[in-house]
């Protein structure tokens, strides 16, 4: 018996990396999953691999109409939404002097506004079930600042804030809302060619001296919509190898 048997989930940014790991783990735990991304070829490939309990939908998280299409498609295919994982996000590392307004707004639109639209759209579907769980993927940069990451840090702090607001508002509907704050994860976002030396330097800042496997974050995200976390809402769950332990 899986931890998520009988549950219907929507996961954004699910075509590769950490998002693909979430999709795989949810299916393994018995959920039926609609996952979305702008990466069509990789998304369709993953859906074909995982079979009938998975559906891929092309989706721009900054577009309210496309959010409605995702929710409608989920209800049509599997039924009302029990779980929403707002995972889609981007990173832009630039100093203030080099960070354009256009780029700042792009990061905020994807990382912050995309989460708002997801929560707002999924609410009506979740209320039909009488229970639900929303997991917003923030970052350790939503708990602390870092030089050169003004856009990313701003958006991830906002994810932490909207999580708490939604948790307070949705409790009466039986819907729990929590945020997850990963540290340095082995995904395509950091495994770029030429970044090996930088990654090795980052490992030295981690108390347990290694980066995380995507599955280690996925296991935490599986826990949050399961019955095992039934009394947790409005909280921050950190998976960072101890980086923020001294904060």
UniProtKB/TrEMBL annotation:
Keywords linked to the UniProt accession: Oxidoreductase
Record bears the keyword Ligase: no
Molecular function GO labels: oxidoreductase activity
A GO biological-process term: bile acid metabolic process
A family per Pfam: adh_short_C2
Transmembrane segments: none
InterPro entries on file: NAD(P)-bd_dom_sf, SDR_fam
PANTHER family: DEHYDROGENASES, SHORT CHAIN, ESTRADIOL 17-BETA-DEHYDROGENASE 8-RELATED
Similarity comment: family membership: Belongs to the short-chain dehydrogenases/reductases (SDR) family.
Protein name as annotated: 3alpha(Or 20beta)-hydroxysteroid dehydrogenase
Record organism: Lentibacillus halodurans
């Amino acid at each position: 018996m899986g931890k998520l048997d009988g549950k219907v989930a929507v996961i954004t940014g699910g075509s590769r990396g950490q998002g693909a790991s979430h999709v795989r783990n949810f299916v393994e735990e018995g959920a039926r999953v609609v996952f979305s991304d702008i990466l069509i070829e990789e998304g369709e490939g993953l859906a074909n691999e995982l079979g009938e309990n998975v559906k891929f939908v092309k989706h721009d998280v900054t577009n309210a109409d496309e959010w409605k299409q995702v929710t409608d498609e989920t209800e049509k295919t599997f039924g009302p939404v029990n779980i929403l994982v707002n995972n889609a996000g981007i990173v832009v590392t630039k100093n203030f002097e080099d960070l354009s307004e256009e780029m700042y707004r792009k990061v905020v639109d994807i990382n912050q506004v995309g989460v708002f639209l997801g929560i707002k759209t999924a609410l009506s579907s979740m209320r039909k079930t009488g229970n639900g769980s929303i997991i917003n993927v923030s970052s350790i940069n939503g708990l602390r600042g870092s030089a050169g990451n003004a856009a990313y840090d701003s958006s991830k702090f906002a994810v932490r804030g909207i999580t708490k607001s939604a948790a307070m508002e949705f409790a009466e509907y039986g819907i729990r809302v929590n945020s997850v704050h990963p540290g340095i994860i082995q995904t395509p976002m950091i495994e770029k060619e030429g970044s090996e030396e930088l990654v090795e330097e980052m490992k030295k800042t981690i108390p347990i001296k290694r980066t995380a496997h995507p599955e280690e974050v996925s296991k935490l995200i599986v826990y949050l919509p399961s019955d095992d976390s039934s009394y947790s809402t409005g909280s921050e769950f950190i998976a960072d190898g101890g980086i923020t332990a001294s904060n």
